[in-house]
Design brief:
Layout (H helix, E strand, L loop, with lengths): L1 H23 L18 E3 H8 L2 E3 L6 E5 L5 E5 L4 E4 L2 E4 L6 E3 L2 E5 H10 L19 E2 L3 H4 L14 E6 L9 E2 L2 E2 H18 L3 E4 L9 H10 L4 E8 L10 E5 L4 H18 L3 E6 L5 H4 L5 E8 L3 H7 L2 H22 L7
Helix pairs in contact: 5-10, 7-10
Amino acid sequence: MRLSLLLFALFPLMIVGCQSFNVANGMGKPGVVPPQIEPEPRTVLLSEMAARLGWSKAEAAGAYAHAIQSPTGDRLVFEEGSDVMVMNNMYWRFERDAVTKHGSDLLLPESVFDFVARHFGREDLVRGTKVKRGSYELEPLTPRAEASKPQKAIGNQLKGWTICIDAGHGGKDPGGAAHGVSEKQLCLNVALRLQKLCEGAGAKVLMTRTADTYPELDERVALANDNHADLFVSIHANISPSDESVTGTETFYNENSPISQKLAAALVAAVVKEANVNNRGARKDPRGLRVLTKTKMPATLVELGFLSNKAEAMKLNSRVTQDKMADALFSGLVKFTAAERKPVVSR
């Protein structure tokens, strides 16, 4: 009897408590939608990512690298145990969790899939699109992270020299593209690395571009001429439309500029030696390229390699090779400037 009376007395209090809890959490109140609970971190297989995007598996350089590619040539590369993704030659770091081997497949954070899907306009593929979620962004490692501010000089090999570095193409002009490798982004990656090396050696560096933009050719020339650059280096990659077996690095110079020939020869020799590529030599410019004919200082155009050759394209698509290329160009510049002893103001 006493127990019944006690329960009868407590019942109204229990109802009030439940109502208070529901109201506080947005439940049981007209017009209030209960909040969605953020799902636990999930993973996705690389093969699943490819299937959902409508992409296919692609060949990748290196025993531990895995790549997928879109029908239009966009390309993603992941490496076992790494938290960095290469997307069309751009490097991005995950917020958490490196990819792991899963049989013959890779397991990666679902947030990376969400990022890629949004990047390529496939918001419809993102799980829980209608759920309120924070906007997830990967950390860009190139180009902005590398071009944000001048490198502090720690050496003096290039002290007193002003060098204009031109990353070929960009923006509306993609340059060459083959086997999923984009010339404009490859050139930018190498140019940004070279920028830091030159600045670290005491040079003043002028960059025609530091992002995916397209300065007109006359603007590139004017930047170098108006700022009295001592050297001009334009970075490109090659395409052989008729013979995919062609490989190697070559440089071009204006035949009316003997000093430009010396610069071109120094750079191609350094790249061949340090990056271990086929030597196609320093050549006279047969096309009258504006960046070589209109610049007022020693100038050269460097073709790093042939994207039309699958093996060379895969090699050039790796960060290791891009760094080697930049390191080699830097070595060539140091050797050339040491031989000249002082800046050459004009040719």
